[in-house]
Design a protein that fits this description.
The chain is α+β, with helices and mostly antiparallel strands and 216 residues long. The protein folds into two domains: 125 residues, no CATH class; 79 residues, no CATH class. It has six helices and twelve strands. A four-stranded antiparallel β-sheet has the order 1-2-4-3. The chain has a three-stranded antiparallel β-sheet with strand order 5-8-9, with no helix packed on it. The two termini are 31 Å apart.
Length: 216
């Protein structure tokens, strides 16, 4: 069984299959738990790579790069049959995805006929989709560079800092974390069936190998 959990992608075998393997392995030196552990861990390793590759096919920009390296696997053991792939990352700002040229530098301040000139900024996380404009409405989005040198796309919230006595409060536009990208139906949903097939194949292969080892 393969399932999406809040913490990651979890792999385990249903009880019916476990009993089937136990019956098949009676009289063998190798335990059924050892067979399960091998099959589950091999599946988790392959699934980790499949999911990372699919995320890079779906999402554009810098953010999906390195998903595989940032992920980890809690492996199955003989005493705890079940493996989980963890996809962890901080939520990146939208600059890590696809941003139009006008958002690549701080937005200039310009006026024309008493009106602030707008420099529309468009963004999109997914590949193959048109960029969506963030500007042109009240609370227009703009790019700024903070004192630490970091460039971000922000919008005014309509509030003031320091209890209403300071500067305009700004909200940074954020993108999807690794976990959110993996959970997208275009990512997990696209490869879920293939991962299930891999798990079945790995279980069969591990069982055949154990049976080929001979009986006591």
């Amino acid at each position: 069984m393969i399932g999406m959990r809040e913490t990651g992608i979890h792999f385990e075998l249903d009880e019916g299959y476990i009993q089937q393997v136990i019956q098949a392995m009676r009289g063998l030196e190798k335990s059924e738990e050892s067979v399960f552990k091998t099959a589950i861990n091999n599946t988790a390793s392959r699934a980790q790579k499949l999911l990372a590759r699919q995320a890079k096919r779906v999402y554009g920009g810098e953010a999906p790069q390195g998903i595989l390296e940032r992920s980890s696997i809690r492996k199955s053991t003989v005493s705890d049959l079940g493996a989980t792939i963890f996809f962890r990352s901080e939520q990146p700002d939208i600059m890590k995805f696809r941003v139009s040229a006008s958002g690549q530098e701080p937005t200039p301040i310009a006026w024309e006929d008493g009106q602030r000139v707008k420099f529309p900024i468009s963004i999109q996380q997914l590949k193959g989709r048109d960029l969506k404009e963030l500007s042109g409405v009240d609370g227009m989005a703009f790019a700024i560079r903070f004192k630490n040198g970091k460039l971000a796309i922000v919008t005014r919230t309509g509030k003031k800092t320091y209890g209403g006595k300071g500067k305009d409060e700004l909200k940074v536009f954020m993108g999807s974390s690794d976990r959110s990208m993996i959970q997208n139906e275009r990512v997990y949903g696209k490869v879920e069936g293939k991962i299930a097939d891999i798990l079945n194949q790995q279980c069969q292969r591990a069982l055949e190998k154990a049976l080929a080892g001979g009986s006591r």
